[in-house]
């Protein structure tokens, strides 16, 4: 039986064969509550206190005895047909009453095509980028949205579908979406000066050579990509006018001790502190931040939003009832990214 919301808790059930010796709920550790299911007349059950979330992504970790040997596997919920693809594989999903997928996913959309490119600069490896543009706009000057973790954002959060639907509705003007591939993700997306300069200098010039850029460039990303989007925006690049960061990894020692063993923690926390300590922006940006209210990154996103406002940037900061995953980031694109882009680019008529 799929999970069910009962008053103040979510009931998970797993029906296993006689060889099952234990079942645990595998879900985000920030969700409070026990994880071990209890056997009740041949069925394993767990009453999880209802978290302040619209969705729960989960699996079951099942231990069995097979031929006197212990075997453990982590599996999808066999009784729940609702699943989602994530950056770490498939997950079963419990959707709370009232949750709905964004309407733009099924809305009319302008057709478009993809063009692969290579950005060369200071990095030892080239930066592959795939550019999406609406059909019939080749060579035209259009605004540009540059997306870190671009292929994952498109596959798991439908970013080009978002753009195509918003262009079709007239909410946004025709624009291009540059999907940057994370070849050396940890090294590049952790405040690497060479990567940041490659994107903001030679990279934007190469993209401009491919097709003219009109209006301010907007850079976006999630998690480490959200940090990187902000750091790119902080560079002295007049072309960049906006940043959209989702669940940005703005690590600080006082909030993020659990990340302190991460190889690039020191570099990230220093760059973050430099931004927080800045009292006046020389080039104010339009910045949108979204983050799950229960996420580990929630506190450092609050600090970052306050610091950016204090420095003079135009900042919107929204906490959403989901966690650190691409579905949460997809669901927050509208209206939050829409508004950032409209503020900078206007609409199709404007």
TrEMBL record:
Gene3D superfamilies: alpha/beta hydrolase. InterPro entries: AB_hydrolase_fold, Esterase-like, Mycobacterial_A85_antigen. PANTHER family: ENTEROCHELIN ESTERASE-RELATED, IRON(III) ENTEROBACTIN ESTERASE. This is Esterase. It comes from Knoellia aerolata DSM 18566.
